[in-house]
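Reopening this ticket.

The earlier resolution said the output was attached, but the attachment link was broken on my side. Pasting everything inline this time so it's all in one place.
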Amino acid sequence: MSVNFVTSLAVKSFDVPDRKRCPDNAEFDLVTVNDYSVARLILGPGWRWSESIRPFEQTELCQHHHLGFCISGEMEVESSGGMCSTIRANDTYAIPPGHDERVVGPDAFVAVEFLGAASFGRRSSRGMHART
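Inline output:
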């Protein structure tokens, strides 16, 4: 088990992200504080991973690990084994690789992710986490 330590004070704003990606009907704002990447996801109504991101990722299902907090909106997640769950505002979530996800309802899904988002939406990432 690895141990992570924060060794210096760092503050960044999503108002001025280090990187911004805007694939179909989505916006990913990425900031790096010390050695940690954090992302704000804004997924528009009707967004679905298998329709919007699969061509970039080049995998059958999303292969990212996700650890995040939902600010607003609603998203359904289905695992490769058929297990379904719904994430809503104020939910904290952990999603293992091998899933599809879709925004439900009329509102955008807005979340902050602490794991898995550094490479999300990057062409051909195949679920590999990276800072670029």
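Reporter confirms the inline version is readable. The chain has a mean pLDDT of 87. Residues 19-115 form a domain with the Jelly Rolls fold (CATH 2.60.120.10).
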